[in-house]
Amino acid sequence: MIKIRNIINIVIIFLFFLGVTDAYTQNDGTLIVKVHGFRNNKGKALVGLYDSPNGFPIKFKKAMRYTIEEIKNKSVIVIFKTIPKGSYTVCVVHDEDGQGDVDRYWYGRPKEGSGVSNNPKKMPKFKDALFSFSEGLKEITINIQYP
């Protein structure tokens, strides 16, 4: 009876360590988002990383990850760590009044400055702003545009 219990304990310990090492060998990476073109340093930059169209482009709390950043020298750098391989979009809004939300026109476009990955001239659909991300390090640049 003792031998079976020892074997079971060894198997459980082995499976535990297998799971721990698997977590460290996932192919996650780091995404650096450089945002330029803010017209001033007032307010905050709302930055969302989306892995699905849910909430895109300006419902930041529905993003895979989001952050609120200070604007310095009319630019912002955001570093998202442990990002799994996949396709993503990033949206940035200049929250000049510092309310923590996005002021919009009746048709949905932000009244404040905004920008998305791939830097289209108009507010795109989710698929138009997608970029591929694989393990390692990737850097993208977003230019803020004002209405």
Q: What would your notes on this structure say?
A:
This protein has 147 residues and is an alpha+beta fold. The protein has a single domain, classed as Immunoglobulin-like (Sandwich), CATH 2.60.40. Helix content is 16%, strand content 37%. It contains one helix and eight strands; from the N terminus they run αββββββββ. It has one helix at 2-24; strands spanning 29-36, 44-50, 65-70, 75-83, 86-95, 114-116, 131-133, 136-143. The strands form two sheets. Strands 2, 3, 5, 6 and 7 form a five-stranded antiparallel β-sheet that branches. Strands 4-1-8 form a three-stranded mixed β-sheet, with no helix packed on it. The longest helix is centred in the first third of the chain and has 23 residues, at 2-24. The chain is elongated.
Q: Quote the average pLDDT.
A: 86
Q: What's the count of strands?
A: 8
Distance between the termini: 76 Å
Principal-axes shape call: elongated
Condensed summary:
Helix content is 16%, strand content 37%.
Descriptive labels:
147 residues; three-stranded mixed beta sheet; 1 helix; 16% helix; 37% strand; elongated
Question: Topology of this structure?
Answer:
Blueprint lengths: L1 H23 L4 E8 L7 E7 L14 E6 L4 E9 L2 E10 L18 E3 L14 E3 L2 E8 L4
Parallel strand pairs: 1-8
Antiparallel strand pairs: 1-4, 2-3, 2-5, 5-6, 5-7
